[in-house]
Design brief:
By secondary structure, the protein is an alpha+beta fold. The chain is built from 17 helices and 12 strands. The chain folds into 3 domains: about 70 residues, no CATH class; about 120 residues, DNA polymerase, domain 1 (Orthogonal Bundle), CATH 1.10.150; about 190 residues, Orthogonal Bundle (hpI Integrase, Chain A). Helix 8 packs across helix 13. The longest helix has 20 residues.
């Protein structure tokens, strides 16, 4: 495999150097254009990890026709997909890892060995047949209350997301210079609807059900964490990154600043960075109950100051060793609380993330406008809020029609005012 290394020159420009292993040495070739560097990298890999025939270092091909012959070498979808995903800019390492995981799980078994250069090996019919199989595919996610594996069917949303990944990979081959294939078979294909799937994916708890669930935790810190999660709607990575200094005031009201979150590197380790998006960096007013929970956790954090880790991070939520509260550790205790809640009459099986959904549902039931909910949850786009929670909005057709009718008939509301141009 070849790689591309970027180096900033003294004049501010960037040099793109292609590196590869050949006969125990590491040859290289430099370019000023990233597209040319990527094209040469493709040629090296298509030629078995060797410089393409006819290439003179620093000069290019001595015979231009040689490049055309080498450029016709097969490129497997597996290799091309990894190359496209790994070279994407503007995405976090966790997102890139998720793309690679989805490609390994859902795309490579069908398309992995297909030659991307040949349109007929991945055509519209092949994509449609793959979609049919995807719509009935299953996977294991967690365990049932009796300990058996929980088998789930791939949701329409996941099918659409993976189809989008497939389409972007093939479109990159169409847009590549030189062009690798001439068409993208994913364009124009009808995808499964997602209108009715949200209720199946998200579990919404009523305030009484939240209170019941919280009471089923044995640890006080877990009760406090769940109280804050439900009371603010923050994500788990944001919740577990909170520190005492994040407690602030907005006027006379208590509030909490969301300014950092835990992120996962490609190697599985975690680091603290900025929240998920620009809008995720926000300040949220909180109720007195949530403020009391934050106060209690702050007191616990102050008591850990003698611990080196506590001094360095002063996180509100930590494990028994004073480190980041790992999701799996909290999840194990969540599952035990769930079993207790089920014994006490709860007829739902929520996940920790469902506290965020339940927070949004409580705001909607109180008549909170969706743009305000978008800001509170830190959604980058209002469309995300609408797609996730729009089905919870009350039916207001009668109200709207009554308002229109009153305007037209003049009964109940003032007549429309006409303004001069």
């Amino acid at each position: 495999m070849a790689s591309i290394r970027e180096r900033v020159r003294a004049d501010g420009g960037i040099t793109y150097t292609v590196l590869w292993r050949e006969d125990g040495k590491q040859p290289s070739e430099s370019f000023d254009d990233p597209v040319q560097a990527e094209a040469f990298k493709l040629l090296v890999e298509a030629n078995g990890g060797r410089a393409p025939a006819g290439w003179i270092r620093g000069h290019g091909f001595v015979d231009p026709s040689t490049a055309a012959v080498v450029a016709d070498a097969p490129i497997t979808f597996r290799d091309w997909a990894r190359r496209v995903i790994n070279s994407r800019t503007g995405v976090e390492s966790r997102t890139r890892s998720d793309y690679l995981r989805d490609a390994e799980r859902w795309l490579f078994p069908t398309f992995g060995e297909a030659n991307v250069r040949v349109n007929d090996t991945i055509d519209t019919e092949a994509v449609r047949l793959w979609l049919v199989r995807m719509e009935s595919a299953t996977y294991v996610k967690g365990k049932n209350p009796d300990g058996t594996p929980r088998i789930k069917t791939v949701s329409p949303k996941t099918v659409r997301n993976v189809h989008g990944l497939l389409s972007s990979i093939l479109q990159a081959a169409v847009d590549h210079d030189p062009q690798i294939r001439t068409r993208n078979p994913c364009v124009g294909i009808t995808l499964p609807r997602v209108d009715d799937e949200i209720e199946d994916e998200a579990t919404f708890l009523t305030p009484d059900e939240v209170a019941l669930f919280i009471s089923c935790f044995n640890r006080r810190t877990d009760q406090l964490a769940s109280t804050i999660a439900y009371g603010t709607g923050v994500r788990y990575g944001e919740l577990t990154a909170l520190q005492p200094q994040d407690r602030v005031k907005l006027g006379h009201r208590p509030a909490v600043r969301i300014q950092r979150a835990w992120k996962r590197r490609d190697d599985g380790t975690y680091y603290m960075g900025a929240p998920k998006s620009k809008r995720s960096r926000r300040t949220l007013t909180v109720t007195s109950t949530v403020d009391d929970a934050l106060d209690e956790l702050s007191d616990m954090a102050a008591g850990r100051q003698g611990d080196p880790i506590g001094k360095r991070r002063r996180l509100l939520l930590v494990d028994t060793a004073g480190n980041r509260l790992h999701y799996s550790s909290f999840g194990d205790r969540w599952d035990r609380a769930l079993q207790q809640a089920l014994r006490e009459g709860l007829d739902k099986e929520p996940t920790p993330h469902d506290l965020r959904h339940s927070h949004a549902a409580a705001l909607i039931s109180a008549g909170t406008p969706l743009p305000a909910i978008q800001r509170r949850l830190g959604h980058e786009s209002i469309q995300t809020t609408v797609d996730t929670y729009g089905h919870l909005l009350p039916d207001i057709d009668d109200v709207m029609l009554a308002a229109v009718e009153a305007t037209l008939t003049g009964i109940g509301t003032p007549q429309l005012r006409l303004f001069a141009a």
